[in-house]
Write a structure and sequence with these properties.
Layout: H1 3-17, H2 21-25, H3 32-37, E1 46-50, H4 56-64, E2 69-74, H5 77-89, E3 96-100, H6 108-112, E4 117-123, H7 132-141, E5 143-154, H8 162-173, H9 183-194, E6 196-203, E7 208-215
Parallel strand pairs: 1-2, 1-4, 2-3, 4-5
Antiparallel strand pairs: 5-7, 6-7
Helix pairs in contact: 7-9
Length: 216
């Protein structure tokens, strides 16, 4: 799927959902706060969120690391409108920069005036991006030396009852969400390619996964 049709799809999905997204998603997008805490940004550090949605994670991260700068990228103009309003309402417009772009192919310098970032994070977005493997490659390419990529998303649900896994996946499909069962293998391959270390954890009996890839 090319970027433009996917952008139109996401705008259609979130045109109305964006108004209640954070209220409803907090009950099943598990592990997001763990990801944010693990960013461990130092004074003057810079982080980029791919698929920033409503800006919820950016606001939380900015509060957790007040000496760092944050950047958010999303393909949906509808979601970015909500993110911009959220960032402005929290008085963070000077510390959080937003841009519309494709997470599978983006130019940090053109969008944000930066060659790279200390941290790149992706929270429950890979499961909505058709060419999600390209997003991982683009995220790793956007890291400065020694930087790290942080991911949280749906897992294989291997420790949960089969009926729950079947029902969950059928429900997620209604929102164009597909858990990436080969995520670990893809990350391992990409980490070998760019000489990065990988920490990969299964959370809540496989309901979600949390991964950190760190460039040497």
């Amino acid at each position: 799927m090319s970027a433009l049709p996917h952008a139109d799809l996401m705008d259609g999905v979130y045109r109305h959902q964006r108004h209640v997204y954070d209220l409803t998603r907090k009950y099943y997008l598990l592990g997001r706060d763990r990801l944010i805490a693990g960013l461990d940004l130092q004074h003057g550090g810079a982080a980029l969120e791919l698929g920033c949605g409503t800006g919820r994670n950016l606001v939380q991260a900015a509060a957790a690391f007040p000496q760092a700068g944050f950047h958010g990228l999303d393909i949906s103009a509808e979601m970015l409108a909500t993110a911009s309003a959220t960032v402005g309402r929290r008085g963070l417009s000077g510390r959080v920069a937003l841009a519309r772009g494709d997470a599978t192919a983006f130019d940090p310098a053109a969008l944000f005036g930066r060659a790279g970032f200390d941290r790149v994070f992706v929270s429950y977005s890979l499961s909505m991006i058709p060419d999600w493997q390209r997003t991982i490659r683009a995220a790793l390419a956007a890291l400065d030396e020694g930087g790290s990529l942080h991911i949280v998303d749906f897992g294989r649900q291997e420790g949960l009852p089969a009926w729950f896994r079947t029902a969950l996946r059928a429900w997620l499909a209604k929102f164009h969400v597909t858990p990436r069962d080969s995520l670990r293998e893809v990350l391992e391959s990409e980490c070998r390619r760019v000489d990065a270390t990988l920490c990969f954890d299964s959370l809540f009996r496989g309901y979600a996964v949390h991964a950190v890839a760190t460039k040497r």
